[in-house]
Amino acid sequence: MIERRNIAVCIVLTLVTCGIYGIYWIVCLTNDVNTVSGDVNGTSGGMVVLLTIVTCGIYGIYWAYKQGEKLDFTKNNRGIPSSNSGVLYLILQIFGFGIIAYALMQNELNKLA
């Protein structure tokens, strides 16, 4: 079971804590998407943060795309129409709007919860 999070609170906390809460949010998003999609061998949230730091953000771009793919796969399996979210998250992440991508991911997770 995954926790439904208030997107506005997550955004405000991320901004107020200068991104520290955003790191926690990434960990939660990753673990929740793995849970919803049934991907037991998926990369854990902590590993995503570590790999993103080690690769100077490059892994974070790849991660955003893969999260979109996993969410689309999950929605298709449940009979919910889906679009190509991975590309949207990828573009947002590349242009520095990662927090918007996180909010959209959280919105999709809240719907699937």
From TrEMBL:
Pfam families: DUF4234. It comes from the Bacteria. This is DUF4234 domain-containing protein. The chain crosses the membrane at residues 7-27, 47-65, 86-105. Residues 5-72 form the DUF4234 domain. Keywords: Membrane, Transmembrane, Transmembrane helix.
